[in-house]
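#struct-pred
JK: can someone run the complex with copper (II) ion? inputs below
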Amino acid sequence: MHAEADISQDNNRDRLTRGGFMRAAVVSAGAVGALGAGGVSLGVPRARAARPGPGSRYPLFLPAERSPVGLVLTEAPGTADLGGGKLSNVWAYNGSFPGPTLRARSGDRATITLVNGLPQETITHWHGMLVDDVNDGHPRFAVGPGGTYSYDFPVNQRACLNWYHPHPHMLTGEQVNLGLAGAFIVNDTQEAALGLPAGAYEVPLIVRDATLDRGGNLEYRPRNGGFEGKIPLVNGTVDPYLEVDTALYRFRLLNGANARIFGLALGNGASFTLIGNDGGLLAAPVPLTRIDVAPAERLDLLVDFRGMPVGTRVMLRDLRAGWDLLEFRVARQVNVPAAIPATLSVIPTLSNPVTTRTFSFDGMSRINGKVYDLSRIDFEVPFGQTERWRFTTKGNAPHPVHVHGASFQVQSRTGGRGTTYPWEQGWKDTVLLEDGETVDILIRFNAYGGIYLIHCHKLEHEDMGMMANFKVV
Ligand code: C2O
Ligand code: CU
Ligand code: CU
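RT: done, structure tokens with the ligand placed:
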């Protein structure tokens, strides 16, 4: 693989100063120190990493739930206990790593004030939320240190797991990697009628990788066009466990990694039941023993612990890296009635595209030969028109391709793996493109006009310019 640029060098040394923005404070690559600008004051750096001894596992962190109605969301340096009680420097939403889990009902109106307590510019994007373009967190709306941005949008879409994360030009990888991400769950009445596991039986899982510095702090050091962390984190916890009842659980899983794909499986070889993905519930449940999930993709999974004796331990594993991700410990015998519905939802199918657009993901920084330009509109899409978009690449995959402004339906994958997968059914907003592959999707923008983005969600590729603006007209 040839290196087009080492963004750990270039991006951090030479941040662009763009129209009207204050130049961000200089941040050395990966530093998460006490950089001021409204951040939490941090103690003396710790001498040694907070790695657990062999065999120790720590309780899975569950972020607090918040309503997005009247919410103030601050991005700032802070500290987090990744497990074992030592505090690590991170960047956090409202002091929480991951950020609070936002939960709204379809029909609510989200009113959120973002406060930038970072030493560099930022803006937050609601990945998967159907919002108009001034609420989408486009990088042109980034605010400098101390700045604020007000969001106000109706939550008007089917039930699903979305997420929120920073989206400033060339700084997204660093900010997400240092801890800025959270779940955003939308509920609706159709979903409620299914009686899926809820309350303590519905657990968000943000799976990602990370590298800790010698002080045990999160460290961002991308290499060769992608960040590859040395350890997995689930909900910001190192080597986590979760005590479970003998019940059916619903796990809302997000791959929150910058660049890593996870091959999820249960250590006992049992199947889990896939019921949904990026855009909400599938038509019907699918039992699977392995799911490969790319950055920014979401999964809605049922795992059945009924019938397992108290004391049973089951590991959620990543078969790609050979990692243990999360240990389920069956701790309590209960008798909670629950059933896996035979059908979940009705998904209208897009069809009859009037045009085909091809997007070639080239090198590590270009789409159709062009590096992202914040102020260039690369193409226009007629409102309400169904189109076929074809994603291809000349190499440097994986490219998890993400589109803002609408969900899409995956039609086919030719070359490479040569097939589509059960977790690519229904509504998606991110699809994995591997080397040699061509992926066709159907998409229709029928919610809002305005400027949206298509980009590679390998965040280092995004930051290097593998992104384009388009306008729905
Ligand atoms: Cu999750 Cu444009 O991003
Ligand atoms: Cu998005
Ligand atoms: Cu890419």
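RT: quick notes.
The pocket of copper (II) ion (ligand 3) is lined by residues 361, 399, 456, 458, 461, 466 (CB under 6 Å).
The two ends are 39 Å apart (CA to CA).
JK: thanks, will look after standup
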